[in-house]
């Protein structure tokens, strides 16, 4: 197998400045709706890149659970590696790889915990098994075997077999407040279309076309 031979042309469509909303939130909403209607598996899946206290980057896939003019929200164990990285360095990057549509969206900004009220509202909307899983998993910590995790899950099932499951104190939502966003559309002959939104001093957005 020669991986140098894996290539294809991007021919679905181009992207012009006149195609774009002036507000990146509205542009993202349009593209997300098209990703959903286009049948993309896990359209809300996004790569979250963080940098730890020693300057070492790491990436992982998380799910977008809310977005708006205030930012992009995901949830996690606040003792996890990603949460510890954010505590040391709030600057993060999100990446939506919508390859089927020959598109990607990149969001750079700062992440911070959302309110306990917002976190509780979402946690209580999750399936009961997902709530139990949050309690059972010491996320990012080593375990000796999968059976250990299954036994912990069973313990949580027994502990919370009646009534509502409380929100773990170690579980929270995070909002990424963007300072810049890039919308990328594949183009023929590697002449891709790239537009970057940059937050300006008036809390509005400047839009620049970038060379591919």
UniProtKB/TrEMBL annotation:
Entries under SUPFAM superfamilies matching the protein: FMN-binding split barrel
InterPro entries named in the record: Pyridox_Oxase, Pyridox_Oxase_CS, Pyridox_Oxase_N, Pyridoxamine_oxidase_dimer_C, Split_barrel_FMN-bd
Residues at which FMN binds: 60-65, 75-76, 82, 104, 139-140, 184, 194
Cofactor(s) essential for the protein: FMN
Pathway stated in the Swiss-Prot or TrEMBL entry: Cofactor metabolism; pyridoxal 5'-phosphate salvage; pyridoxal 5'-phosphate from pyridoxine 5'-phosphate: step 1/1; Cofactor metabolism; pyridoxal 5'-phosphate salvage; pyridoxal 5'-phosphate from pyridoxamine 5'-phosphate: step 1/1
Pfam families per record: PNP_phzG_C (PF10590), PNPOx_N (PF01243)
Catalytic reactions on record: pyridoxine 5'-phosphate + O2 = pyridoxal 5'-phosphate + H2O2; pyridoxamine 5'-phosphate + O2 + H2O = pyridoxal 5'-phosphate + H2O2 + NH4(+)
EC number of the protein: 1.4.3.5
GO MF annotation list: pyridoxamine phosphate oxidase activity
Cofactor info, note text: Binds 1 FMN per subunit.
PROSITE patterns, per database record: PYRIDOX_OXIDASE (PS01064)
Residues of the Pyridoxamine 5'-phosphate oxidase N-terminal domain: 34-157
PANTHER family: PYRIDOXINE-5'-PHOSPHATE OXIDASE, PYRIDOXINE-5-PHOSPHATE OXIDASE
Functional summary from the UniProt entry: Catalyzes the oxidation of either pyridoxine 5'-phosphate (PNP) or pyridoxamine 5'-phosphate (PMP) into pyridoxal 5'-phosphate (PLP).
Family affiliation: Belongs to the pyridoxamine 5'-phosphate oxidase family.
Subunit structure: Homodimer.
Protein name (database record): Pyridoxine/pyridoxamine 5'-phosphate oxidase
Provenance organism: Candidatus Litorirhabdus singularis
Gene for this chain: pdxH
